[in-house]
Amino acid sequence: MTDIGWRKTWEDVENDYVGFDGETKIGRVYLVTTSGTAPYWAAFPAKGGGSMRADSRRVAMLAVERVWEKALEGGIRQNPSRSDEI
With helix as H, strand as E and coil as C, how does the chain read? Predict the structure, then answer.
């Protein structure tokens, strides 16, 4: 069972969030507004490595949550290069 919640990564920065399962970081999502591309939400799960793009914040958060739940089931191992950072 998980106790997943999301909070702002930094209080003074909009559109940037870190997900937690209890006190364990599970991932980060933030809005990318680079010129020349349409805005999108980037999602970075703490386990499994890699990144994902989403059209909305909620979809990005759900993607990170799905990866976390799969990792808890044993389907994904921790990426050693990102064990403490998100």
Answer: CCCEEEEECCCCCCCEEEEEECCEEEEEEEEECCCCCCCEEEEEECECCCCEEECCHHHHHHHHHHHHHHHHCCCCCECHHHCCCC
